[in-house]
């Protein structure tokens, strides 16, 4: 679980990929975690957000629509919901 | 009843009419009169009973005239929720031999969805029809579901109680007529705010709650059209609340008399917010049909990125502004409003503004002044103002 300094970020094998671990963080924090990483990410970056807050399922695609980013779907990673976002 | 001016009364800055607003003066007068003159059981065959019965019959007549049906098709259950429970239970039981299925939308009032769960618990089935981004029913899916075998009843709201989007009732009626399926409409967001004509709509059952048009608590409205197969599973021998029914009808007559001008006035208040808020606040999701013709006039729901709505409601309350929210953090569960979720809206940082008879331009001025400031402050405090 991440603290005030922000979510965990690590390259996931490629410089164009970021992992945001927002597990245990409640709405609106997962979207804030995503937006902070997105602000510093170059175009084309794929951000994966791990989140167990139920509202993330609606708010991450809605954030993408509002901010002109591309939502690339939801998948299961080790039992956690993972949301994929491509930075325009 | 004098006019309401002081802010201590809670009416100034009150922007939550959809949850039940201040009583209409006509309702206050009718309540007072009925408590004094119509205290008896209206089913009793003595003078006082007949007096209560007269008042109850007048209330039935007034509501029937307003929605376009016969007085004996109207009754007054103790609340809008009770009216919905009765409508669905009776409509489903009346067609049990046809089949076990209820078809309804994913954005109905929780009273409808809870009644659907009760139906499932007793062995029935529910088909939930999805909606588009404006929370409007997917007609193709609805047509398929209603056309399938075994459908006892359909239920589609006249307009959505959270985002205001009107449902395509003419098309719903045509689909149901073709399939031979009776349908119920929750007219809670429409009655008192726009014309309701059950003959044009063609619904068999209609429900509403008097609190949404300035009536008292204790008066739901249930319409069951003649010829509807309707069987209430349990005996319903509770006498109707005559004072509440009389006051509900008095308020409905009063607001209906001014409906055209009020519709224009309330729509203009909401349009001002829809135009001005995005100019003053970045990262706002305006929810519901952007076309005013596709909405009832009194509602606006919007969400603000990166805010937690509990903090926002608290700041607004401190500034004397009363609104409500569909965000998860303002509910007991972690789930946000099912309407926002079904419409693909941003669910965090959400507020619902609903205006009514005593809302003024000054209330909207204040909201337009306070909301941008508080949103900016909260974002600055959470370090999200640059995102």
Record the SSE blueprint.
The complex is a heterodimer of chains A (88) and B (387).
Chain A: E1 8-11, E2 17-21, H1 29-39, E3 46-50, H2 56-67, E4 70-77, E5 80-86
Parallel strand pairs in A: 2-3
Antiparallel strand pairs in A: 1-2, 3-5, 4-5
Chain B: H1 25-37, H2 47-67, E1 74-75, H3 80-94, E2 101-105, H4 110-121, E3 125-129, H5 139-147, E4 151-155, H6 169-179, E5 183-186, H7 198-201, E6 205-209, E7 220-224, H8 242-257, H9 259-280, E8 284-287, E9 299-304, H10 309-318, H11 338-342, E10 350-354, H12 361-381
Parallel strand pairs in B: 2-3, 2-4, 4-5, 5-6
Antiparallel strand pairs in B: 1-7, 6-7, 8-9, 9-10
How is this structure best described in words?
- The complex is a heterodimer of chains A (88) and B (387).
- Helices cover 26% and strands 33% of the residues of chain A.
- In chain A, strands 1-2-3-5-4 form a five-stranded mixed β-sheet, covered by helices on one side.
- Chain A has helices spanning 29-39, 56-67, and strands at 8-11, 17-21, 46-50, 70-77, 80-86.
- In chain A, a hairpin with a 5-residue loop joins strand 1 (8-11) and strand 2.
- Chain A has 88 residues and is α+β, with helices and mostly antiparallel strands.
- In chain B, 52% of the residues are buried.
- Chain B starts with 24 loop residues before the first helix and ends in a 6-residue tail after the last helix.
- Helix content of chain B is 41%, strand content 12%.
- Chain B has twelve helices and ten strands.
- In chain B, the strands form two sheets. A seven-stranded mixed β-sheet of chain B has the order 1-7-6-5-4-2-3, sandwiched between helices. Chain B has a three-stranded antiparallel β-sheet with strand order 8-9-10, covered by helices on one side.
- With 387 residues, chain B is α/β, with parallel strands linked by helices.
- The longest helix of chain B has 22 residues, at 259-280.
- The model of chain B is unreliable at 1-6 (pLDDT under 50).
- Chain B is globular.
- In chain B, helix 4 links the parallel strand 2 and strand 3 (125-129).
- At the A-B interface, helix 1 and helix 2 of A face loops of B.
């Amino acid at each position: 679980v991440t603290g005030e300094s922000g979510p965990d970020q690590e390259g996931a094998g490629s410089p164009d990929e970021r992992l945001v671990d927002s597990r245990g963080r409640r709405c609106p924090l997962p979207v804030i975690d995503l937006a902070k990483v997105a602000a510093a990410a170059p175009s084309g970056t794929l951000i994966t957000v791990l989140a167990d807050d139920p509202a993330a399922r609606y708010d991450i695609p809605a954030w993408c629509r509002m901010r002109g980013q591309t939502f690339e779907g939801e998948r299961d990673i080790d039992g956690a919901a993972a949301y994929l976002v491509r930075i325009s | 009843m004098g006019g309401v001016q002081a802010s201590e009364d809670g009416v100034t800055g009150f922007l939550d009419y959809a949850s039940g607003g201040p009583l209409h003066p006509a309702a206050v007068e009718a309540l007072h009169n009925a408590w004094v003159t119509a205290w008896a059981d209206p089913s009793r065959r003595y003078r006082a009973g007949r007096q209560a019965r007269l008042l109850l019959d007048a209330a039935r007549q007034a509501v029937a005239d307003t929605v376009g049906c016969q007085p004996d098709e109207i009754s007054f259950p103790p609340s809008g929720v009770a009216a919905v429970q009765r409508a669905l239970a009776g409509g489903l039981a009346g067609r049990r031999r046809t089949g076990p299925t209820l078809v309804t939308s994913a954005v109905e009032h929780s009273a409808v969805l809870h009644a659907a769960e009760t139906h499932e618990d007793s062995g029935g089935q529910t088909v939930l029809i999805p909606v588009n981004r404006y929370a409007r029913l997917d007609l193709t899916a609805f047509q398929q579901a209603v056309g399938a075998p075994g459908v006892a009843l359909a239920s589609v709201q006249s307009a959505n109680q959270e985002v205001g989007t009107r449902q395509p009732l003419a098309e719903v009626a045509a689909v149901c007529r073709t399939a031979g399926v009776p349908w119920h409409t929750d007219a809670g967001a429409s009655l008192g705010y726009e014309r309701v004509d059950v003959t044009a709509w063609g619904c068999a059952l209609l429900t509403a709650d008097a609190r949404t048009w300035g009536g008292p608590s204790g008066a739901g409205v249930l319409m069951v059209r003649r010829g509807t197969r309707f069987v209430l599973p349990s005996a319903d021998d509770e006498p109707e609340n005559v004072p509440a029914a009389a006051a509900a009808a008095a308020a409905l007559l009063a607001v209906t008399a001014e409906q055209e001008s009020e519709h224009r006035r309330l729509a203009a208040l909401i349009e001002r917010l829809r135009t001005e808020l995005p100019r003053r606040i970045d990262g706002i999701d305006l929810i519901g049909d952007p076309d005013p013709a596709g909405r009832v006039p009194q509602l606006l729901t919007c969400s603000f990125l990166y805010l937690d709505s509990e903090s926002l409601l608290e700041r607004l309350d401190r500034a004397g502004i009363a609104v409500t929210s569909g965000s998860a953090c303002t509910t007991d569960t972690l789930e946000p409003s099912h309407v926002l979720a079904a419409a693909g809206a941003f669910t965090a940082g959400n507020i619902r503004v609903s205006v009514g008879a005593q809302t003024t331009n000054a209330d909207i001025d204040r909201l337009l002044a306070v909301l941008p400031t508080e949103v900016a402050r909260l974002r600055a405090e959470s370090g999200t103002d640059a995102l």
